[in-house]
Amino acid sequence: MIRKACLFLVAFFLIQKVYSLNYIQNIELSINDTLTFSSKNSTLNIKGERLFAFRFLQPRFTAQLKVWPDEEGITQVRVLPSPFCQAVDTAILINEEYYLMFVQFNDIINSGQMTLRIQLTDRNGRNRIEEIKLFPYTTTQIKTYLPDNELFIGEEKVFELFSNLPENIKFPIGWVTTQEFDYRIVSSGSTIRLHVIPKALGKKTLSIQLTSIRPDLSEDKIVNYSLTPLVLNFNVKSGRLAFLNLDRQELTFDEVSRREGIEVQIDNNRLLLLNKTYRIEDQERPGGTLIGELYTRQSLNNEKVLCRLRLYNLHRPTEGYLYIKDGDEARFITNFGISPKTTIQSIKILRNGVDWKESNVVFPGEMVNIRIEGVGMHKAHFKFEELEWVVKDSIVQSDNAVEYRVKIPKTISKKKIFIYNQGENTGSFLQVREYQNPRDFDFVYVNYGTGFKAVKDFTGPELYEKTLKDIVISFDPNKIDEPDKFYGKQYVQITAKITGSNGTLIELENLPTVVVCPGDRSMRHAFYDKTDCLSEEMNLNSFLDKKTYDFDDWTKIRLTFKHVKEKYSDVPQEKTVEIILQRKVKFDIDVSFPSLLTKIVKQEGWQNGLAVSMAMIAQLSFYQKDKIARFRPYKIGVGFLALNAFNFSNNNNARDLGIVILGSVYPTRRDTKLSFPLYIGGGYLLNTDSWFWVFGPGIRVSF
User: Fold this and answer.
1) How many CB atoms are closer than 10 A to CB 275?
2) Which of 209, 370, 447, 686 could form a disulfide with 452 if both were Cys (CB 3.0 to 4.6 A apart)?
3) How much is the pLDDT for 190?
4) Would you kindly state where each structural domain of the chain is located, as residue ranges?
5) Which pLDDT score, from 0 to 100, does residue 348 have?
């Protein structure tokens, strides 16, 4: 009995020696200040190995480590780095008892067998390494919430699973088949989804047993890798139609899609057979309108099936679902749009302050709204050739119309802006036209002898005193277009009307239509058609029968400039230039009756007479300044005066003929035929050989 006791003690001490640490008396690991594990009471013996067991809550965490060396004289303790564990700080000696430090654990779940290596250094500089094999364990839970436990035969339903440590769960690969269910579990990051397809009717239970990567440890130190089974109770009902999505939600119905078909991808389904043709109708019951035929070709690795779809009718998604049928029996449900090929039927333009107008004409530099009307507009993606600034109005887009706001470049070189849809030329285009707006006549100049002056600057009649040699009309093309506004080619009609001083028409001439193109300073200069443009000066005498230098005094030249109405949509401009040949003095021969009662001063003295005298005077008339053909109220002249010209008595001394300088004052009214001017003057009588003075009223008759 004593021998057995001795053998037991020897065996006990041998075992303790085997499972004790060589250089460390004890280690203590503290996690989150709530979990503390010591090598003295947290060890496991698995397959003859002594493991330091500790519980963890997260795959990555920082823990406090205390180390008690097995002997004195240890001056340094440190944790050697490894892929799963690194020291955070330097170990410090606490109260000459133990060393304290913090260590960081990384990805503890997928680190395999973990060994903690601690290096101890004594005062002599000798290093000793202690290896401590670790056994991390944790409690992993998985559960779900069923808002609706109804399932339908053949229909896949997805539920979300929740776990405190989804990284620690081993999920089955692919579908798992049981007698009553097919299921699979898909994990993506922290999200876990359970896909379930029932196969039997009634109240059924699905139990799923999962295992963990890191095990759990019971109170009696039993290692367990199995999780608590996930038990789900379902009420399985008869099948309903599964919805299969097409990879394209809008298809085009044309001759190609009707005869040859379109390649599409549709959701895979366990009940969808390959190499089979399905009918697509617009109602579940038999006899619906045939929308198309779907031929299943092969399965793809993206959970899709490659198919060829032939279309036979149009369909809008808002009109209802489409049914995929095997014969007359509906198998699946889907929905997509089938519309005719996008076709442009009309183009409308909206400019500021103007209503929509059916037109495709645009102008360089302008910003306009464009409305494209036709069929299949809701799926159109139009692009405009050579336009960089295009904004689509998504609110207006419908099956029949789509609107854009575009800016036409000022330097656009093309005359047609073709419209493309999905990279294909639609054949429709915007017509680029040059501006043709009537501009004020500040680019037209007239020179009648005083230098060139813009037609716009003429504000009234121009009075010219000299001989009018010619009238020159010139044009400045660089004045037409402005940097921010284009006017385009100017079509100008010039009319010359020549009238005399009394208003009689002398000549009326319509000059040839003048076309003036914007000059090379214009951004659009290179793009104008300049075949009919005029840049030379025009001489009015080249078009007149009677030349300007032959015009009489007070002749009026009236030049009318106006834009050709047919060439413009806006109101054309019109401007008139009047040039009048002004004179200061008029010379003429005047026959008048200077007096009814004349006071004549002779050498003998005063002589009174009641007889009428007659005068023939070469006289000068003076025009009023800045008035057209209006005389001043006085004249002066030299001539002959017959005294008592109508006295036929025998007293010859009563009549006499004299040379006279005579001044007269006339009324200024133009509409009087008979007037009574006042005369004053003097002269020399030839018969009596004497000087005389004469003054008094007279009579003047004008015709």
Assistant:
1) 8
2) 447
3) 80
4) 22-137, 142-237, 242-340, 343-432, 444-581, 585-701
5) 94
Among all chains, which residue has been given the structure tokens 């198309």?
292
Report the candidate in 84, 129, 121 with the shortest Cα–Cα distance to residue 103. Answer: 84
Q: How far apart are CA 40 and CA 56, in angstroms?
A: 19
Cα distances from 279 to residues 251, 283, 284, 324, 332, in angstroms, run 17, 11, 11, 6, 11
Q: State both tokens at 150.
A: 């109804």
Architecture of domain 142-237 in CATH? Sandwich (2.60)
Question: In the structure encoding, which two tokens stand for residue 431, read together?
Answer: 């017509």
CATH superfamily of 343-432: Immunoglobulins (2.60.40.10)
Which CATH number applies to 444-581? 2.60.40
**What's the CATH code, domain 22-137?**
2.60.40.10
CA 664 from centroid of its chain's CA atoms: 82
Cβ proximity of 248 and 336 under 8 Å: yes
Spatial separation of the C-alpha atoms in residues 375 and 378, rounded to whole Å: 8
The two three-digit tokens of residue 559, written as one number = 């030049």
Whether the domain at 22-137 and the domain at 444-581 fall into the same CATH topology:
yes
Please state, in angstroms and rounded to a whole number, the distance separating the CA atoms of residues 428 and 404.
Answer: 15
Supply the pLDDT for residue 1: 41
Q: Which two tokens stand for residue 152?
A: 């339908």
Tell me the torsion sign for CA atoms 102, 104, 109, 110: negative
- pLDDT value for 17: 36
Query: Would you tell me which CATH number, out of the four given (1.10.150, 2.60.120, 3.40.50, 2.60.40), belongs to the domain 242-340?
Result: 2.60.40
Give the separation between CA 76 and CA 398, rounded to whole angstroms.
Answer: 80
Tell me how many helices (H) and strands (E) the chain has.
2, 60
The secondary structure of 247-292 as a DSSP string is: S-SEEEESHHHHHT-EEEEEE--TT--SS-EEEEESSSSSS--EEE
